[in-house]
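Data deposition worksheet. Section B asks for the primary sequence of the deposited chain exactly as it was used as input, without tags or linkers unless they were present during the calculation. Section C holds the resulting structure in token form. Section D is free text for depositor observations; keep each observation to a single sentence. Incomplete worksheets are returned to the depositor.
Section A, Depositor: J.P.
Section B:
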Amino acid sequence: MKIGITGATGQLGQLVVQQLKKRVDAQQIVALVRNTDKAVTLGVEARSFDYNLPETLTGSLAGIDTLLLISANEIGKRETQHKNVIEAAKKAGIQRIVYTSLLHANTTSINLAGEHLATETAIKASGTAYTLLRNGWYTENYAGSIGGALAGGAFAGSAGEGKISSAARADFAEAAAVVLTGNNHEGKVYELAGDEAYTLTEFAAAISKHSGKTIPYNNLPEKDYAALLQSFGLPEMFAQAIASWDTSASTGDLFDDSRQLSTLIGRATTPMSVTVQETIAAL
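Section C:
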């Protein structure tokens, strides 16, 4: 069995490859990437794979049995890009597609859901066996702002007291590897989230504990938070998107207590405080 991983040099993809190498021979893994030079360190076969070049995709998928389609990072283009991959997978005879979707994609107010739902629909319509991994938030999404919070003296956001069931990116990568190499996952939709739910007030408290500095949480209206992010150099549309995701979090869209992620990986998910501590130690 050969397993193909799209976006294998990305933050999630690299971790999936590492997890797969613990479970199957490296010769069974194919990294599907835009730049094969960047994939050398992965220690597996690498093939050129660009979502925007549909005429090249089928050939790159030759001989692959199971495909992990990691969602692309170009918001607004992903529906078309993913459909290109799905059509190529069908032509190449892929037996199963595993797709990284969004937590509660069919009910969430998070504006990323539309492209994910369109992809889920396209996968189902293709007739190819599938498994949908509806990934919740990575704790690293918030941990990436810790350096700025320490420099500025506060952690800002618009999530209010919304509970966030995040987990470390490595937890989601391990779940993907389990599904890719295991049985009885066909047709399943997994809602994946961390065991622990926290507010950004509690996140800021964890920063304070592990840094030795007092870092309060500063909750802002969505427009003000977007403006703050822009002042840090983020493009306007991206800043607005991040602020809107926080607003969705305030209404519970990043909360899930089903523990399907920890069930899949056979252990508790990584506590938020551990990711915070590791992030601070690396600064």
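Section D:
Strands lie at 3-6, 29-33, 45-48, 66-69, 96-102, 129-135, 155-157, 189-192, 217-219.
The chain has two domains: 3-135, 143-148+153-163+195-256+270-282.
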